[in-house]
Each structure stands twice: as structure tokens, then as C-alpha cells.
Amino acid sequence: MTKALISKFHRNDNGSILPIFGLMVLLLVVIGGAAIDVSRAVNAREKLAYAIDAAALSVAADLSTSVLTNAQITEKIENSFRANLVDAEFLDEAIENLDFVVDSDAGIVTVSSSAGLNNYFLNIPGFGKDGFGPEVFNFGTNAQVNYSRFDVELALVVDVTGSMSGDMATLRTASEGIVDILLPEDTPAEDTKVKISLVPYSAGVNVGSSYATTVSNGESSRCVTERMGTQKYTDDPYDWDPSAAASSFFGGGSTSCSSASQLIPLTNDRDTLVPAIRALQASGITAGQTGTAWGWYTISPNWTNLWPSESAPAVYTDTEVLKFAIIMTDGNNNRHYDRKRRCRNGSCWWYWDVDSDSGYSGDSSTRARQICTNMKAEGITIYGVYFGTSSTSTGARNMKACATDEDTTYYQATSASELIQAFSNIAKRIQQIYLSQ
Fold it and tell me: What is the pLDDT confidence band of residue 128, given thresholds at 50, 70 and 90?
């Protein structure tokens, strides 16, 4: 009887499906839950990678324009993390584990971090968590970005002639935007790696009384026009030789350049540049060749002895300095000057011969383009900006010819918003150039 009951019990499988079903449900929950845990970890890693990329790019951009301490770099990365991981549950851990390395010789910044996420399903309390999987999924990543080891010298040459009178607010906004991008407001002047000169021009360039008196031997007290002889196309050092005045003299000839729009030599001080930009006023006619020349002088090492020591341009052979010029106009060059000698009744004297001409082949435009050519030969990258609707006008053609590359460094702006955008794009392009080198 006992053997029969035991045998019957062994053969009876009623109810065995329930525990098997329970085990299968648990296994399916673990498998499905594991997929959720893994997916969470993958998404978290992608978020962290994005945040690290953004932080590295931000720091690289700042390192390209300024000198940062380790504490400043840490603060910038943490701020970037908080902005890009605002809802991430692992934010605090990612900040705690962040690390960076700045290789100043190679111009590379590397940012890394790691964090972990608790598993909801693989780690089921009391149900074999050691067997199912880890309690935490750990993940980490890094990003490596080049930053510029270079300094930048930029001449901003802007048209403040009478034809710009209705657009001066736009020009001021556009010019100030360049300063905002390349000389950020929160960067101390002594830490920045960018210097900008401001060269407003009309019939001449208002270089200020001290500089004007020096280069013209006292003939001009503010407004300087042409340089004489073949030197007008060069950045040879200025001089004054009474015995050869026709070949070495800096003029004179006009007092109609804007009294409010004054040249500012290279500076990294926003408090100098921004008020000068905001003071720009329109006046006079267009001698773009003079503005172009003086833009060159502000970044030429041959003019170091004219400018204050803090504004002295680097030598052309300095491989750690990049030189740029932005030349902008809204019209045609239509004024040039020549120093001539006249004699009458046994007496001779020098005088300024003033000529109003226009057109692409006129003296004013021809001189301007030759100066641009010589600037480019010295390794200066020129951005030409034409503010007007005609792509075939003399002004547009001059700016195309002056630009280093018609396809990449020439801009035409047909409206106020396009001029502001063009200046902004150029500033960002300059950033990209020295970031990638």
C-alpha cells in the first residue's frame, strides 16, 4: 500500500505548472527589466558624452581667446554640466568625478567624467542579486578638443562716410558684436589673447592730434590722408625728410573726416573699444584707400614706434600671432590726394592736389586694391564686406578683390540685419580659424 501511494505521488503532476510559471514570470521580469536598466545606462552615457563635448568646446573657445586658471576651467566645465544635465540623476556624481588636462604645447584640452546608475531590475532585493547582475551600472567618457595657442590681431576698418548716415546705428551694433565675440565681457583685458584696432574712414582717417602731428610733421592736427610716392602702397616705417617731402610725406589735404570717429590702435580693452564704436558718426566722402592703409599700419610691425607699447603689433615672422583685417564699405571710393610742387615767380611750394574720382579703375580704388594685395602678401587675412544691394557696383568689386578668398572671406549685406549677421559670422570664423590651427 505504501509503495503504491509513493508511486502514485511520483506519477501525479497536477499543480506542477504553477511553480514553473512563477519561475518563468520572474525570469521574464528580470530579462525585460535588464533591458530597461541597460537602456537607461546607455542613454545616461550619451547624455554625459554630450555634456562633456559641450564643456570641452566651451573651454577650448575660452582658452583660444584668454588665459584661464585651473579654477576658472573647473568652474566653466561645472557650469556647462549643470546647463546640459539639468535633470540628470547622476549630475552631482558626474561633477564630482570630472577631470581635465590642458596640453598647452599641443593646444589640446581633454575633459572626462564618470557616473553610475542604480539598477532597478537586475538588482532585485532578496532574489539573487549577486546572480542576476551588478547593483550599479558605471559609465564614463571623455572629449578632446583643439584650442588655439595663437594670439590674434584684428584691424576693423569701417566706412563712416556721409552715405552711411542712416545706417550708423547698424554699423555700431555690428562692430560692437565683433568685440562681444572676440573680447567677451567677462574676460579681463590682461587675460585675453585678442587685440582689435578700430579704423573709421571717410575723406581721411582721424588718427588723433598726437599721431597726426607726428606722421605729417605738424601739417595735420587730426585728419590724415594720402602717403606720397611708392610708399603709399607699403607699410614702410613712416618718416619725415624735408629734402624729399614728395616721397616721404604724410598728408594733410582734408579736414572733413569725422571728428567723433577716431582711430584706436590695437587694444584688448573693451572699455576703450566699445565707447569709441558707440561714438562713430558719419561725415565726408570716400577715400577707402586711406582707411585700408591705416588699418594695415595698426597691425604692421613696421609701425611699432608710433603706437603705445601695449598696442605694438607682432612681427610678421611670429608664428604664434594671426593677423586679420575686416574692411567694410557701402559705396565707391571717390577721393584721392597727391602732394605736388608748384613754382611761380621764383618761389616754389608744396600743395595738395585733390581729385574726385570714382569707378573701379579710378585712382582711389586702384590704390586701395594694391594696398590689399600687399597686405595679403604679408600673410594678413582680409575679410571684405560690401553693404549694398548691387553685386556689380565698384564697392562690391573692390571688396571682392580685397578679400583673401572671394568665396569664403567676401560678404555682401543688403540689409541692416545682414550687416550685423555678416560681422558676427566673420568674428566666429576668425574663432574657428585659430581654433583649428
Answer: very low
Give the residue from 146, 166, 200 where a domain finishes. 146
At residue 24's C-alpha, the angle toward residues 21 and 27, to 5°, is 155
Confidence of residue 386 (pLDDT cuts 50, 70, 90): very high
Length of the chain: 437
C-alpha cell at 136: 550599479
DSSP 233: G
Interatomic CA distance for residues 142 and 45, integer angstroms:
11
Q: pLDDT band at residue 129, thresholds of 50, 70 and 90?
A: very low
Please name the residue ranges forming H helices in 202-304: 209-215, 245-248, 270-278, 288-299
d(CA 151, CA 434): 8
Task: Note whether 149 and 104 are within 8 A (CB).
Answer: yes
What CA–CA distance (Å, rounded) separates 196 from 50? 34
Determine the 3-state secondary structure of 280 from DSSP: coil
Cell numbers for 313: 603689433
Side-chain-facing half-sphere of 310: CA atoms under 13 Å: 11
Inside any domain, residue 20: yes
Helix (H, G, I), strand (E, B) or coil at 357: coil
Nearest-angstrom CA–CA distance, 383 and 319: 21
- Spatial CB neighbours of 423, under 8 Å, sequence gap ≥ 6: 174, 175, 177, 178, 326, 385
130 and 258 fall within a common domain: no
The helix (run of H) or strand (run of E) holding residue 181 is helix 168-182
Residues facing 192 on adjacent strands: 66
Q: Which of 386, 152, 340 has its CA nearest to residue 246?
A: 340
Alpha-carbon span 334 to 362, nearest angstrom: 8
Please count the structural domains in the chain.
2
The residues, ordered by sequence, that sit 6+ positions from 74 with a Cβ below 8 Å of its Cβ are 98, 100
310-351, pLDDT tens digit by residue?
A: 999 999 999 889 999 999 999 999 998 887 888 999 898 878
Same structural domain, 170 and 126: no
